[in-house]
Design a protein that fits this description.
Number of strands: 7
Helix content: 10-25%
Largest sheet: 7 strands, mixed
Shape: globular
Strand content: over 45%
Distance between the termini: 33 Å
Order of helices and strands: HEEHEEEEEH
Amino acid sequence: MDAALEGFHPDVEWSVLGMLPDLEHYRGPEAVRRFWQTWQETFAGFQIEVEELIDVGDRVLALIAASGRGSGSGAPVGTPTFAQVWTFDGDLVKRVEMLTEPEAREAVGLRE
């Protein structure tokens, strides 16, 4: 986690899918760390699989799926593919926005 956060801007913003309860918006690397830790505490063996990356200038559209096991139940859990739009300020991540795939494609000027 520490190595990943080194590449984040001090004012990084992480915006979460509106359909995720109690999760919305995080500002700063430590807030992003807390968001990530929530996922790690909820799912044993939590993993992110990057399915596709699309370079669109100062942004990257990432198509991602997450998986793991419920930390209490041990039941396997997996997400459908979802999208993130990563915006950069130079070499640093300035903003990550979690969206549905169609919303993300439109946000970066791509249409399916």
